[in-house]
């Protein structure tokens, strides 16, 4: 993207005083990049969705009606990531994910995509995504060339959305108990629920209670979201050994963390 066009976009974004102006800028951005779609998507802790972009309104309503938020590999995958991701790198292996992909392509979303996960104050989560119909080689060349500009645009868009929608900002998270910290830490490290229950010397039923309690405190949609938000807030740290739980497994060999 030419520097002058990027500067004009950011200048227009900074001066925008209503959503309609941002929508116009998003459309012009799509045309500048010569791709099918550009979309900003904010997902609140209670599952409410907010945003603007160039998707067909029929697809947007269809997405809501089908409750695709629960199976969308882009949203679920970006919960676990802090860096931009090409959609091809996400997990599309499940039957629900494959059906979603087929449906989205049929609605003109494109066979290629690239998303920037955005984390704002108090665990706010949003995405800025671009999609297009083209070959893998063409898409790789496009994202390599424009990645820095896309990241910059994503964060400026999110700041403007926060300015416009102050009431949507999440409340500060409540502190987690030591057991809730242990539970989310081991899950973030890649252990399964049965393994975590064994390590903490508790039943899986009790473990579920800790997970649900932590999820409620974090305002998370699901366990993956709870882990992602706890990491983003610095409530858990993965990379060293987990805090030794009372009666737990000090000195146990650490498992290699999953890629964030």
Write the layout of secondary structure elements.
Blueprint: H1 3-15, H2 19-33, E1 37-43, E2 49-53, H3 57-65, H4 73-79, E3 85-86, H5 95-106, E4 112-119, E5 125-132, H6 136-164, H7 178-188, H8 193-199, H9 204-218, H10 223-232
Helix pairs in contact: 1-2, 1-6, 7-9, 7-10, 9-10
Short description, anyone?
49% of the residues lie in helices and 12% in strands. It is of the alpha+beta class. Helix 7 packs across helix 10 (223-232) and helix 9 packs across helix 10 (223-232).
Explain what you see.
- This is Regulatory protein, luxR family.
- This protein folds into two domains: 166 residues, Beta-Lactamase (2-Layer Sandwich), CATH 3.30.450.80; 88 residues, Orthogonal Bundle (Arc Repressor Mutant, subunit A).
- Strand 1 and strand 2 form a beta hairpin.
- It is globular and about 60 Å long.
- The protein has ten helices and five strands, in the order H-H-E-E-H-H-E-H-E-E-H-H-H-H-H.
- The chain is 49% helix and 12% strand.
- With 260 residues, the protein is α+β, with helices and mostly antiparallel strands.
């Amino acid at each position: 993207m030419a520097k002058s066009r990027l500067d004009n976009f950011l200048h227009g974004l900074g001066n925008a005083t209503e959503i309609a102006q941002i929508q116009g800028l998003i459309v012009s951005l799509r045309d500048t990049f010569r791709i099918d779609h550009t979309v900003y998507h904010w997902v609140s802790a209670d599952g409410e969705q907010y945003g603007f972009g160039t998707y067909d309104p029929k697809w947007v309503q269809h997405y809501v009606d089908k409750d695709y938020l629960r199976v969308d590999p882009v949203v679920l995958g970006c919960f676990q990531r802090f860096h931009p991701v090409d959609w091809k790198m996400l997990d599309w292996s499940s039957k629900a994910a494959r059906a979603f992909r087929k449906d989205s392509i049929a609605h003109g979303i494109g066979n290629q995509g690239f998303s920037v996960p955005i984390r704002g104050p108090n665990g706010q989560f949003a995405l800025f995504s671009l999609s297009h119909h083209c070959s893998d080689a063409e898409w790789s060349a496009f994202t390599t060339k424009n990645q820095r500009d896309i990241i910059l645009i994503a964060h400026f868009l999110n700041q403007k959305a926060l300015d416009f929608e102050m009431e949507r900002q999440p409340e500060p998270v409540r502190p987690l108990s030591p057991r809730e910290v242990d539970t989310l830490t081991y899950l973030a490290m890649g252990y399964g629920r049965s393994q975590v229950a064994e390590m903490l010397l508790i039943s899986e039923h009790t473990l579920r209670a800790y997970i649900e309690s932590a999820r409620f405190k974090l305002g998370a949609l699901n366990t993956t979201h709870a882990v992602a938000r706890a990491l983003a807030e610095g409530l858990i740290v993965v990379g060293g050994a987990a805090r030794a739980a009372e009666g737990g497994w000090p000195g146990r060999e650490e498992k290699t963390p999953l890629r964030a």
